[in-house]
Amino acid sequence: MEDYFKNVVIFDHPLIAHKITHLCDVNTGTKEFNEIVGELAMLMGYEALRDMETEMVEIQAPLAKFKSPVLKNNFTIVPILRAGLGMVDGLRTLSPTARVGHIGMYRDEETLEPHVYFHKMPPDAPNGPVVIVDPALATGGSMEAAVRFVKEKGCRNIKCMCLIAAPEGVRRVMENHPDVKLYIAKYADAPLNEKGYIVTAFGDAGDRVFGTK
C-alpha cells in the first residue's frame, strides 16, 4: 500500500456497494440516480464527520434539565459544479444548517486540466470542516484544484468525498495534499479511457444527475 493511502478511507459496507452497483447501471434513470447519489452522500457523511467538535449546552427536557452535546461549529459543503450538486442534499440531511460553497470548473478536452469559472465560499468556512464533494475522482485535476482553492481561503480541516475513484486521481490529490482526508465509496482499480473517464463507473455524472445526455 502506497504511503499516500494513510489518509484514504475506502468504505466496505454492503449497502454502499449495493447502491454503487445501481448507480453504474445504464438502466438507472435520472430520478433514481439522483436519489442514490444523495443516499450515498448521507451514508458516507456519518463517517466523514465523525471527528466534528461538540460543546455542552443545558437543555430543558420533559422531565429535567441537563447538559447535552451540540456541534461546536457547523461544516461547509463545497460541491464541484455541476455534478457535485447531487451530493449536497444528502449531506445537508445530516445538518440542515450546514453551509454550502461552490466551485465551478470546466475541463479542457485536450489537456484534461480544470479551469475555474465561478467560486463562492461562506466567510466563516475556515471555522469548521470543509467537505469537497464530486461523484467521480478520475484524473484528480478538479479535486486537486478545489483543495488548493479552499486552502487559499484559509480552510485547514479539509475532507474530500467521492463516490468512485481511480488510482490516478487518488494519487494526484493525496501526493499534493497529504494533510487532506479522502473518503471513497468505491475504488475503481481500472485504467481511464482516452477522455479521462473511469470505465467501470457511471459515465458523466453531471449528465446523469441533470438528465442532459
Order of helices and strands: EHHEEEHEEEEEHEHEH
Structural class, from helix and strand content? alpha/beta
Which residues form runs of ≥5 with pLDDT under 50?
Answer: none
Distance between the termini: 38 Å
Number of strands: 11
- Figure out the total of helices: 6
Radius of gyration: 18 Å
**Biggest sheet, in brief?**
9 strands, mixed
Helix content: 25-40%
Instruction: Determine the strand fraction and express it as a percent band.
Output: 25-35%
Shape: globular
Quote the average pLDDT: 91
Description of the molecule:
With 213 residues, the chain is of the alpha/beta class. Helices cover 31% and strands 28% of the residues. The chain is built from six helices and eleven strands. It has helices spanning 14-24, 30-48, 88-94, 141-152, 167-176, 205-210, and strands at residues 8-10, 54-60, 65-71, 76-81, 99-100, 102-107, 114-120, 130-133, 136-137, 158-165, 181-187. The strands form two sheets. Strands 1, 4, 5, 6, 7, 8, 9, 10 and 11 form a nine-stranded mixed β-sheet that branches. Helix 1 runs antiparallel to helix 2, helix 2 packs across helix 3 (88-94) and helix 4 (141-152) packs parallel to helix 5 (167-176). The radius of gyration is 18 Å and the shape is globular.
Summarize this structure briefly.
By secondary structure, the chain is an alpha/beta fold. It contains six helices and eleven strands. The longest helix has 19 residues, at 30-48.
